[in-house]
Write a structure and sequence with these properties.
CATH architecture of the largest domain in chain B: 2-Layer Sandwich
CATH class of the largest domain in chain B: Alpha Beta
Largest sheet of chain A: 5 strands, parallel
Helix content of chain B: 40-55%
CATH superfamily of the largest domain in chain B: PAS domain
CATH class of the largest domain in chain A: Alpha Beta
CATH superfamily of the largest domain in chain A: Rhodanese-like domain
Helix content of chain A: 40-55%
CATH topology of the largest domain in chain B: Beta-Lactamase
Structural class of chain A: alpha/beta
Strand content of chain B: 15-25%
Shape of chain A: globular
Strand content of chain A: 5-15%
Largest interface: A-B, 14 and 18 residues
Distance between the termini of chain B: 30 Å
CATH topology of the largest domain in chain A: Oxidized Rhodanese, domain 1
Oligomer: heterodimer
Radius of gyration of chain B: 61 Å
Number of strands of chain A: 5
CATH architecture of the largest domain in chain A: 3-Layer(aba) Sandwich
């Protein structure tokens, strides 16, 4: 029994390192994807975004990415509001009518900014929310028109 | 070469050497194949690298042209100018806008070689093009690009499209983007010359690169490259519709690869050969330990046993097969030993029986010398054992037996013979002479019985009966002598019971030439010894025979004679198988008697004696070497 204890004591650092490596690996692999859908919001593709923009001139398009990313290229007519700084007052100023169609997008399926912004908007009572889940990555992959500053 | 001349050891060593040679050849072949495979893999790898680098280069070009196209396509000035193209000055306005990037530059201006900007309507009809840049390019948009655009419907038509295509000028790269953003009004084509960017492939692959047009013209000829010692690897860059556009030749520095491969080859080949040699040596040692040594020892033992040393036993220590072989051979040798002992006993008993017989039984060899005689013979003739040995048929019989046998066709002859006794008396005997051939040598056996008083009828009757018994006895004698002589000839050691048998064996073993020399030497020595005896010591040969006790003195009709000694003084009368020891003893006796007189005759006798001894020792050595 004494021997067993000693062995366990000696192997404890190795086990710790193994656990650390495993957890870091899992964390790296499990960088959270955005959900497939957000209740209360309508998920749309790039083509549907274009149709929405063309069919609905009043559509508010909100780019939830950082300003530098926005400057490099964005969807035509998009307004840049970073999700972390987005306040209810700003939203009420852009869209006082809570039934107004609003489209959110960010970098893509690994980016949680637009999902966060959508959740906030839903909390604040907006009813007509569209969520471009594929985001900027999907837009660029399809070589769709971009606006650069 | 006969296979019997090859030993297992030689064959095994030859096989191992062959295996070793094959291993060396294979390792060298493998080394060369390995090198070729490595080169092929290196070439394939470089080809893939060039392909990836080409795609990377095109990706960079795509990025710059897309940015420029989007910037221009979304500019409200260009959109309005396209909308107002039919207005006066509208086309010139568009051309001015399209010329602007050539004049004022754009992001990535130095990264690509833009050769044209063109505007097409939604039906892909050319509306306007920049006045600057390349001239003479086809007015139609590339077939590959136009085909895709025409297939697209709705929102799909907003997507930018690019492609490498072959113009009359050469391969060009085009990026087509919508004008007006999401509200498509026309198409803008950004045309660049990819040759400007192709050298970037070399920067990515970090190897010298030569770019050739399809016509074979080198496009980056301004770059000085030392490609000696490099392995050229070609990659064909295709247009978007799969037509060949450029030939890109990358150069791989194979010197380092060759050095590494050579090093690897030496290490692996040496290691392989070393291991192979060690394995072969170990196998050879194992073979030697478990095969060669036991077999060699076994053969040695078997040879000794074959020479008659049946008490020896073959060494059984060895592998199972050798153990079984040795065990079997030993069993066989035991059987032979038992049979030989039985045979020897039988022979001895037979010889004893013949000695017990009161008849005289003799066997004469091919030279008419007495080869065998029983005790009855010495009793009949009155000679001692040694004296009998020196006799021949003419000494013992007044009749010519040889002539009798020659004149007769019978195998067996019943005759009356006159035997000459030691004291000179003649004794009339009934005799049965029997031809006896031993290994092709003609001889004959004689059974003698002195004739009884003729008046004694009972004795005569008895004699007649005894004659029949002698016939039967002669048959047995013939068979016995045949077998004994046969064994005595091939294996004298086995027949120890009769000294005459050894003599017979010697007779058969010596050639006629050797015997002739021996007889000459004996006669010379005896003649010289007698000469010394008579001249230097003043005595006669009777004194020599009497004093030496070596030679018998006979009394013939009251006259002393030295019949036996006399035979050795003449080559004609000297026995075919002379008694050399007697001659040597006589010479030594004479020399001893002469003491230190040191006469020429004494010296000659000494020399002759030495020569005879030398000859005899040489004959003995050759006889033992022949396994007799």
């Amino acid at each position: 029994m004494h021997i067993k204890d000693n062995r366990f004591t000696r192997s404890r650092p190795i086990l710790f390192c193994l656990c650390l490596m495993l957890s870091s690996k899992l964390l790296a692999d499990e960088k959270p994807f955005v959900p497939e859908s957000i209740p209360g919001a309508i998920a749309v593709s790039a083509e549907e975004v274009i149709e929405l923009i063309l069919l609905n001139p009043d559509l508010v398009v909100i780019d939830s990415r950082k300003k530098t990313e926005y400057s490099k290229g964005h969807i035509e007519g998009a307004v840049n509001i970073l999700n972390t700084v987005m306040r209810q007052e700003d939203m009420e100023m852009i869209a006082p009518d809570k039934t107004k169609a609003i489209l959110f997008y960010c970098n893509g399926t690994r980016c949680l900014r637009s999902a966060d912004a959508v959740s906030k908007s839903l909390e604040w009572g907006y009813k007509n929310i569209f969520w471009f889940r594929g985001g900027w990555n999907e837009w660029m992959d399809k070589h769709l028109p971009v606006i650069t500053d | 070469m006969r296979i019997e001349n090859l030993s297992i050891r030689t064959v095994t060593i030859i096989i191992f050497m062959m295996i070793g040679t094959v291993a060396i050849v294979l390792s060298l072949f493998a080394g060369n194949y390995f090198r070729q495979s490595a080169l092929n893999a290196q070439m394939s790898s470089l080809s893939r690298v060039i392909e990836v680098a080409s795609q990377e280069m095109l990706k960079d070009v795509r990025g710059y042209t897309f940015d420029l196209g989007m910037k221009l396509g979304n500019s409200s000035e260009l959109v309005n100018a396209v909308k107002n193209i039919e207005q006066p000055g509208g086309r010139e306005n568009i051309i001015a806008l399209l010329d602007d990037p050539f004049i004022n530059g754009f992001v990535g201006f130095s990264k690509v070689n833009m050769v044209k900007l063109r505007i097409f309507d939604l039906n892909l009809k050319l509306l306007a093009e920049s006045s600057m840049g390349m001239t003479g390019v086809e007015s139609e948009i590339a077939a590959y690009i136009s085909g895709i655009i025409k297939q697209r419907q709705g929102v799909e038509r907003l997507k930018a499209i690019d492609g490498l295509w072959r113009s009359s000028y050469g391969p060009l790269y085009s990026m087509v983007v919508p004008v007006g953003g999401l509200r498509l009004t026309a198409y803008l084509e950004v045309v660049v010359d990819p040759v400007f960017n192709l050298p970037d492939i070399g920067k990515i692959t970090k190897t010298p690169v030569s770019i050739f047009s399809i016509g074979g013209e080198q496009l980056n000829s301004n770059e000085q490259q030392d490609t000696s010692g490099f392995l050229p690897v070609e990659f064909g860059l295709l247009t978007s519709d799969g037509m060949p556009a450029f030939r890109i030749v990358g150069y791989e520095n194979v010197d380092k690869l060759n050095q590494e491969m050579e090093k690897t080859k030496i290490v692996t080949t040496s290691g392989f050969l070393l291991l192979s040699m060690m394995t072969l040596l170990f196998a050879l040692w194992l073979f030697n330990r478990f095969l060669f040594v036991p077999v060699s020892r076994m053969i040695q033992d078997m040879k000794q046993m074959a020479c008659g040393d049946l008490d020896l036993e073959v060494n059984k220590t060895g592998l199972r097969e050798f153990y079984t072989l040795a065990e079997t051979f030993n069993l066989m040798a035991d059987q032979v030993r038992m049979r030989t002992n039985d045979l020897r006993d039988s022979q001895n008993r037979l010889l004893q029986l013949l000695d017990l017989d009161d008849s005289a039984i003799l066997y004469f060899g091919r030279d008419n010398d007495v080869i065998y005689f029983n005790k009855g013979t010495t009793d009949l003739f009155g000679y001692s054992y040694d004296e009998m040995s020196d006799m021949d048929s003419k000494d013992l019989f007044a009749d010519d037996i040889e002539c009798l046998m020659k004149n007769s066709v019978l195998q067996k002859l019943h005759v009356e013979l006159h035997c000459v006794r030691n004291n000179g008396d003649n004794v009339k005997c009934n005799a049965v002479i029997h031809r006896l051939d031993v290994k092709g040598e003609h001889g004959f056996a004689v059974a003698l019985n002195p004739m009884m008083n003729e008046q004694n009828e009972l004795a005569e009757f008895s004699a007649v009966n005894r004659s029949g018994i002698r016939d039967q006895r002669m048959d047995v004698v013939e068979q016995s002598l045949n077998s004994i002589l046969e064994i005595a000839k091939h294996n004298p050691n086995l027949v120890m019971g009769s000294s005459t048998m050894g003599m017979l064996a010697a007779q058969y073993s010596e050639s006629d030439d050797e015997k002739s020399v021996l007889r000459n030497q004996c006669v010379n020595i005896m003649y010289t010894a007698l000469a010394c005896w008579e001249h230097d010591l003043g005595k006669n040969k009777l004194d020599l025979a009497d004093e030496s006790k070596i030679w018998q003195v006979y009394i013939d009709k009251s006259t002393p004679t030295t019949r036996t000694l006399d035979k050795y003084l003449n080559i004609e009368s000297c026995p075919k198988n002379p008694r050399c020891q007697r001659v040597i003893d006589t010479a030594e006796f004479v020399l001893k008697k002469m003491g230190s007189r040191n006469t020429s005759g004494q010296k000659k006798l000494q020399v002759l004696l030495d020569e005879l001894r030398l000859n005899i020792s040489g004959m003995k050595a050759s006889s033992s070497k022949a396994g007799i």
